[in-house]
Design a protein that fits this description.
Two copies of one chain form a homodimer. With about 200 residues, the first copy, chain A, is α+β, with helices and mostly antiparallel strands. Chain A has two domains: about 60 residues, Winged helix-like DNA-binding domain superfamily/Winged helix DNA-binding domain (Arc Repressor Mutant, subunit A); about 120 residues, Umud Fragment, subunit A, CATH 2.10.109.10. Chain A is built from three helices and eleven strands, in the order αααβββββββββββ. In chain A, the strands form two sheets. In chain A, strands 4-3-5-6-11-7-8-9-10 form a nine-stranded mixed beta sheet, with no helix packed on it. Chain A has a two-stranded antiparallel ribbon with strand order 1-2. In chain A, a hairpin with an 8-residue loop joins strand 9 and strand 10. The longest helix of chain A has 17 residues. The interface between A and B is medium-sized, with 32 and 32 residues. Strand 11 of chain A pairs antiparallel with strand 11 of chain B. Chain A binds a DNA duplex (30 and 30 nucleotides) through helix 2 and helix 3.
DNA sequence: CTCCCGACTAGACCTGTGTATAGTAAAAAC
DNA sequence: GTTTTTACTATACACAGGTCTAGTCGGGAG
């Protein structure tokens, strides 16, 4: 439920966004109704009017399909500080959305983290960069992943070794972390698929 | 004239793309007609049908605004090899288009260059990175710019000094270039505004 | 208990819009 | 010189689709 919307209104808004980015044009009132099984266009129209009054959409009266979702929640969310146990990928928590095509970095669910510090400088990732990650719980050897350590998220290269798991830093001044078999395995939030830097 | 389209058809296609990305929904046949001053919707409809037959659009019969531009020419063009004297920013020359919002890196006309080699490694720009540049002919001191030297485009930091212009590399093994007042000033194609890396 | 609001159904009105028929005129192709 | 293509005008039709009136039902607030 996004900011004062009812559950149904959220669903309708989400459908409209999905439909639009899938088809290239917004749905009609009746197409919305059909999607939810409404037997009257009035039901869909009511929800859309509510969404408009609440500022989530804009539409031109009388014009078919002439509607625009305003603060789109499509795009890759840039997540800020993340606390352990919190719903990591709650889009609502996003401080910002990156305006690029949903499939820009391939298939899957993505999020971005703003890099603080120079711990991955060896991989040419520097302060302020936005690292793009595909949300997944596993990482293959050698992949750079966002790892939850305590209540901090850090970016590390995951390298399984003989004595356990190595979380390798790409900066000689930042020590790598070695986890033995007795240690609790770290929670992986996503693996790095790209990087965006805005000067 | 893009690939077998008449001049008018190109204009119509461009208008449809602009309208759609500006409004969030495609124009009607009559809105296209109005834009070009056609006094009959038939004229616009004919062009749109031609565009559809040629594979540049798709539309659902009878449905208002239900049209989709297929291979969109919106986005930031990734330019490959560029020869001197050629129309540098001809979108048609693009090997690829980056699917991000036109305003992602701000206002202006943008293009991207794929980085070859490690000449800017000191600025954490590495092989394969896509450097995003705003198309402009001037660079301020300290900005990284795409510079045309002979028939090669290189990425250099532009630093005006006492004896002339320095095109500074960010790699100790790649020498910087110094241009005196007697040298022809280099042609600047654009200044760097960002970077996109896909793993 | 009553009132209000969210979430719908049923049915209808009417206009915006895709699309058709019938032409005109000029340029390009054959 | 004739045909084809491009680029339009003028008019009209039918229906998709926005929007209206009138109502039902349930849940939560006062």
């Amino acid at each position: 439920m996004t900011r004062g919307l009812t559950a149904r209104q959220t669903q309708v808004l989400e459908f409209i966004e999905e439909f639009t980015s899938g088809h290239g044009y917004p749905p009609t009132v009746r197409e919305v109704a059909a999607n939810f099984g409404f037997r009257s266009p009035r039901a869909a129209h009511d929800h859309m009017k509510a969404l408009e009054k609440k500022g989530f959409m804009r539409s031109r009266a009388g014009r078919p399909r002439a509607l625009e979702v305003l603060h789109s929640r499509r795009g890759i969310p840039v997540l800020g500080k993340i606390a352990a146990g919190q719903p990591i990928l709650a889009v609502e928590e996003a401080e910002e959305l990156l305006g690029l095509e949903p499939t820009f970095f391939g298939q899957g669910r993505f999020f971005a983290l703003r890099v603080r510090g120079e711990s991955m400088i060896g991989d040419h990732i520097t302060e302020g960069d936005l690292v793009i990650l595909r949300a997944q719980e596993e990482a293959r050897s050698g992949e750079v992943a966002a790892v939850l350590l305590g209540d901090e998220v850090t970016l590390k290269r995951v390298v399984p070794g003989k004595q356990g798991l190595e979380l390798r830093s790409a900066n000689p001044t930042v020590p790598s972390i070695f986890l033995g078999p007795q240690d609790e395995p770290p929670r992986i939030l996503g693996v790095m698929v790209g990087l965006v830097r805005k000067n």
